[in-house]
From TrEMBL:
Domain GCVT N-terminal as annotated: residue spans: 11-105
UniProt keyword list: Transit peptide
Pfam family, one: GCV_T
Gene3D superfamilies in alphabetical order: Probable tRNA modification gtpase trme, domain 1
Keyword check for Transit peptide: yes
Domain named CAF17 C-terminal: residues: 208-280
High-level lineage: Bacteria, Pseudomonadati, Pseudomonadota, Alphaproteobacteria, Hyphomicrobiales
Native species: Bosea rubneri
Name of the featured protein: Folate-binding protein
Transmembrane helix as UniProt keyword: no
NCBIfam families, per the entry: ygfZ_signature
Amino acid sequence: MPAIRLVDRGVIRVSGDDARDFLQNIVTNEMDEVTPGKAGYGALLTPQGKIIGDFLVVAVTEEDGGGFLLDCPLLQTADLMKRLKLYKLRAKVALDDLTESTAVIVAGDGGRLPEEAGLRYADPRLPELGDRAITDRDGVEEIAGGEMDDYHARRIALGIPDGGRDFAYGDTFPHEALLDQLGGVSFKKGCFIGQEVVSRMQHRGTARSRVVPVVFSEGLNPEDGVEASAGGKLLGRVGSCARGRGLALLRLDRVADALTAGHELDAGGLAFTLQKPAFIRFPFPGEPEFGAAA
């Protein structure tokens, strides 16, 4: 299967002598673990702990100029640049938006990309997502002829949320978007913006809403963004859908109550069930250990 260009992604370069320390002090992931050949996954939060933008962090070798590239959502690139400049202060850091000259591509089959694809890195969120690469915009069509819908269908089937589709930027906590399950938050590093709120949610187990994979009846899809309900009560909202599967941001305590009462879970007139992927470690409704920690 050919590689796929993700036209909904942008690229920001963070370079300079203080680049690593600068990011370490503000983003959610552990920057010491990001090295050439090993990407990281993290986010920049508001002081209240809500996600401004999540991104993959890729280290650039000194031979190629050093620093880091942020593989980020296209619609959040301008806001991320604005916030990064705000926090830069006197740090020896240069910030450049490379979106117009670069492209982000992924392996169409979730495997490896060829060396000539560009700056390659395995998606750090889940091995099954395969390789990604940041490459020059010129000539990208020659190496990336696949359909983006195929990538998103695979992402949905694996249970990986996508910002702007499955959760709203500026209104979602990292736990709700599964960053704690996908290696996107370090609970051992020093302070980062919004850390107090995120740490409190982690230790108190107060994340009642989560993005979870769902399977619809008859292999059909409701419209993206429809409400999910059961027994006349709102459970949350469905995000992206493909091929009879979807991701939905749901109040799991309400889902548990609905299942206990024998109510059918419904979205846009289609019944659905929750399907727990192997990477999720918190208990699902219906499991014996389900409780406040969900």
